[in-house]
Task: inverse folding
């Protein structure tokens, strides 16, 4: 698949916006967990085996 330089820039910009949005969502979730749970509470997140991490590829 051949992409023009402007297409690559556009895809990169969309990816950067999505990353910022996900960081904000993660921050809001963690802040809510901290505020709504008593001290000395342990919260553990596990990655699902059915959803492996995405691999980054150069454009």
Result:
């Amino acid at each position: 698949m051949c992409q023009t330089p402007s297409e690559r820039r556009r895809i990169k910009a969309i990816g950067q916006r999505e990353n910022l949005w996900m960081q904000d969502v993660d921050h809001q979730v963690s802040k809510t967990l901290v505020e709504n749970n008593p001290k000395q509470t342990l919260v553990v997140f596990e990655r699902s085996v059915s959803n492996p991490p995405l691999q980054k590829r150069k454009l």
Observations:
- Residues 5-36 form the longest helix (32 residues).
- DSSP finds one helix and no strands in the chain.
